[in-house]
């Protein structure tokens, strides 16, 4: 038995109209279904559910949802995100990233990289105590 992927992500929102507009107009999501208390959207292969709530519980940690852009569209989308959203963190990791908030304060990241590129970075720039597991077994740094 094993997990084959992420089935869907659900985000609680205070204003469904505002959130649908944010995800469709800014991030290019496709609206797939809508009802009085929610909506289903797709962002590439990601199934996103927006669910209306009356109370939000803001997070203060680094939990976030990282999204990828289509080839060639990272830079224009990143510029638009920077001009139309609040930035919550500056990028300090491998690969280009923009860390931004949706209208309800959900922490999002637009990242231009893959797990393979991140692991390659750490193979070249080891971090004390990090162990990288790969096809050839384990590598300790």
TrEMBL record:
Domain VOC: 5-113
Pfam family, one: Glyoxalase
SUPFAM superfamilies, sorted: Glyoxalase/Bleomycin resistance protein/Dihydroxybiphenyl dioxygenase
Keywords: Transferase
Keyword Lipoprotein: no
A GO molecular function held by the record: transferase activity
Protein name, UniProt field: Glutathione transferase
Organism: Palleronia caenipelagi
């Amino acid at each position: 038995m094993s997990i084959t992927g992420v089935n869907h992500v659900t985000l609680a929102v205070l204003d469904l109209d505002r959130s649908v507009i944010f995800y469709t107009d800014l991030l290019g999501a496709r609206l797939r279904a809508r009802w009085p208390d929610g909506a289903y959207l797709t962002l590439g292969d990601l199934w996103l559910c927006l669910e209306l709530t009356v109370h939000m519980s803001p997070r203060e940690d680094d939990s976030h949802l990282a999204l990828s852009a289509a080839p060639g569209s990272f830079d224009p989308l990143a510029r638009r995100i920077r001009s139309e959203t609040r930035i919550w963190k500056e990028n300090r990791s491998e690969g280009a990233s923009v860390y931004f908030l949706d209208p309800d304060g959900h922490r999002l990241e637009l990242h231009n990289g893959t797990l393979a590129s991140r692991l390659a970075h750490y193979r070249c720039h080891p971090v004390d105590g990090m162990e990288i597991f790969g096809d050839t077994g384990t590598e300790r740094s």
